[in-house]
Structures are given as structure tokens and as C-alpha cells.
Amino acid sequence: NAGVTQTPKFQVLKTGQSMTLQCAQDMNHEYMSWYRQDPGMGLRLIHYSVGAGITDQGEVPNGYNVSRSTTEDFPLRLLSAAPSQTSVYFCASSIPTGPNTEAFFGQGTRLTVV
Amino acid sequence: AQKITQTQPGMFVQEKEAVTLDCTYDTSDQSYGLFWYKQPSSGEMIFLIYQGSYDEQNATEGRYSLNFQKARKSANLVISASQLGDSAMYFCAMRDTIKDDALNFGKGTSLLVTP
Fold first, then answer.
1. CB neighbours of A83 closer than 8 A, spacing ≥ 6?
2. A23 to chain B, closest Cα gap in Å
3. CB contact under 8 A, A41 and B102
4. Highest mean pLDDT among A49-58, A68-77, B91-100
5. C-alpha span between A66 and B67 (Å, rounded)
């Protein structure tokens, strides 16, 4: 069972470079989301999607773009990386059937912007 | 807006002892769900336990139990018979019904289990 797969696991970028963090799930989950984790901050929501073609902003969306062309994939794009985007990024998916639905997380991507 | 508060940045417990990790929350919703996740040093997020606001019984999953006190808006995680492998970060989270089921996380508690 693959679950939620994130690539790459590690990435170093130079300031101003662009890149896409990939996220794919094979559980046919409608709901997918991206979080960033910074020391002492817990996980904060960047963007989320309730289904193909539908995305919305979370708590910290600035500097990030997303799209959802298929149920399986939810890539996160950094258009012009900044040192403040150095963080660990998690993708998650779930079935939005109510408050008791567990979210499944990917392994995380550790991004460093120099 | 919902808010999750974990007031213990770090906790120590001796192996085989029980430990309680605190979580308080603030919400105006009548129906909500509370989760606990474990994050070991390897970094992955592991789901531990869930409590629904209308659940009459406190949730239990093996050595994990949730001390849910709705009137006090607290959902503390109790780990019984601690093991060295329980050393990790622990996050309390709540579903955000406004943001279509996104999770709001607390800042986490770092637990160290000592021999």
C-alpha cells in the first residue's frame, strides 16, 4: 500500500529558484492538503483541495501555488523560493465524510533555501 | 476560529510509567473531532487516536487513551506503560469545519522516555 507519496524527500534551492513538490495518493481520497512544519510552530495549513479542480488557501498561502487536475495528485509550487520557505512540508489526504476521518500523511519533504 | 493549545513543550517520563500530555481547544462548533498524532525522530506523522465530540466514552487504542473533558475543552492523551519507542513529538489536532476538514494543530509536546 503506497498511501501518500511525496517527492523529493530532501531539496536544497537557491533563493529565487522555482520548484514543485509532488504529492500523490492512491486511496481515492477527495480531500488533500499541504502543511509546513517549522520548529515550535506545529503544522500550519498552506493550501487544500476538496476535489479535482477545486483548491483554496490555508493559513500561510503566500509564496505557494497549487492545482488539482486529478484526484490522485496535488503538487505544491514555489515560484520564487525564499529563505523563509525553509521548512518541512507534509502532504495529507482524507475522505471528507465528517469530523472523525483520519488524515494520512506523506513522509515529508525537507526543503532548505539558501 | 478554532485554536489548539499544548502547554507542555517537553516532558520526561520513566520507562513503564504512565504520562499525560495536555491539550486544550477552543471552538464554537457543536460537532467536532480531536486527533492525536505522533512524530518520531524519523519525521513521519502517525495517527494515534480520535475522539468525537458526541462520543460518550473516552477513546482508547491499546496503550493510548484520551481523557476527554468536554466542559473544560480538554482532550489529554494518556500513554500507559511508557516504552523507549514512545519518545517523539506528539501533536493534538482538530478538524477545521470552515476549511473543509483541514486539521488545526497544536505546537506539539516533545516526550522523552528514559530507562
1. A15, A113, A114
2. 15
3. no
4. A68-77
5. 38
